[in-house]
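ugh ok fine here u go
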Amino acid sequence: MINHTFLYTVAELREIERAALAGLPAGTLMQRSGQAAAEVALKLIPDPPEAAKVLVIAGPGNNGGDALETAFRLAHAGVRVLVLPCLDADKLPPDAQQALQRAKNVPLQFADPARREDILSSNYSLVIDGLFGIGLARPIEGELADLVARINQLDCPVLALDVPSGLDADTGNVIGKQGVTVRASHTITFIGDKPGLHTCDGQDYAGKVSVANLHVDERFLHTSHARLNDVALFAEFLRPRSRNSHKGTYGDVGIIGGAPGMAGAAVLAGRAAAKCGAGRVFIGFLGEPLAYDNAHPELMCRRATHIGIGTSVLITGPGLGTSNIAQALLERSLSASKLVLDADALNLLAAFPALAQKLAERTENALMTPHPLEAARLLGTTAAEIQRDRLAAARQLASRFNAVVALKGSGTVIARPDGEAVVNATGNPALATAGSGDVLSGICGALLAQHWPAWEAALGSVWLHGHAADILVEQGSGPIGLTASELIPAVRLALNQLAGNGRSPRGAH
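structure:
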């Protein structure tokens, strides 16, 4: 059985598909795709099936063949099926031509494409998007773009086959600057999962993703270098606390930041580190230090220059600024054994190549948490270019700076210097608020202080951060107006649930 957490590129899937098809009768995988999609579709429509009306959009390639095979299966199940063909029957690939003939031999209706406007004005229980699959290389334009726009206006579930039409399966981008994409409520993807369904625009367009492996023999399924984040990837370090322990057992976290006007960033990171289990937390301010934090007096506040690099973990960057003293503090921080770099620390690295070189020469990987604009500065490019291929950008950062990198955004990408990458599926727009990244850096620091390796600390922190936002939104606290400080107790609860009783909280993959 395929490991559903692996994420495969289009090139990898083409290779797997070719190898699998070589030993199978013609049309086998397409028929399996149709059966799997029909099973999902039947769960999305009212019971009994005869009460449903399903519109199937069939495009000009094998994705259209998958759609026709799905239509065939649904009609056999008694569903009223209307197929809107957007294809030239004579130019269909052989398997898709076979699927077309099968569909013509069951009681379903083929619509006249010239009546597309009337067809899309009707009510449906479900629309199935089989217009274009993973092979699309150019933007959807003209009449088909209008068709996609109309599909997106329909008030019913939309099931995309393999990927929503118009979405790049590798990167999660809408194809083309002026391109359009079907906005699916559900996607059933075939053989293996794709990174583009979970990052960049993918989360907005793919909806709920399920994987049908089509019974492809395991010998054709090589190990991928990308995965979907999962509690299992860091579960080894989720342990109940020993009674015979003390604050020293769980490490010290020092935070260097909090320049005048930005003290809150450092405080948020400190609160997150304390609530996520660090034994002691020291906040070092570039400006005048707070006497103490009224909400959390256990946080120890002092000048940034008084935070030693011998502290178990240093978090440098939240509210740091880019002054000369900030630069000097960052240079000193780079000698710390365990290090989290965020915000202005990243901007300083981009501005001073000597600091970047010192980071790259460290023997222990630092943990970096850039957003796309910070990543762009580090790589000397634009945020748009970073977003064009988020996995490639995260891998490039990890390699260049010899660090574990969490490239934040929709579907945060975590990468390490050897090229391994993980896409995180937890989280929602509630995280698009000031201070959210400071909270994430505090979680990272706390896990590092509790002896998590940098890779697992990044995976766990990003997962918990997003999961906390998901739970709060479920409870009605967002996404609009949720503040960064609200995430902290929700992360603490999830972390204790995971570590204390061995069960994954709701939302675990």
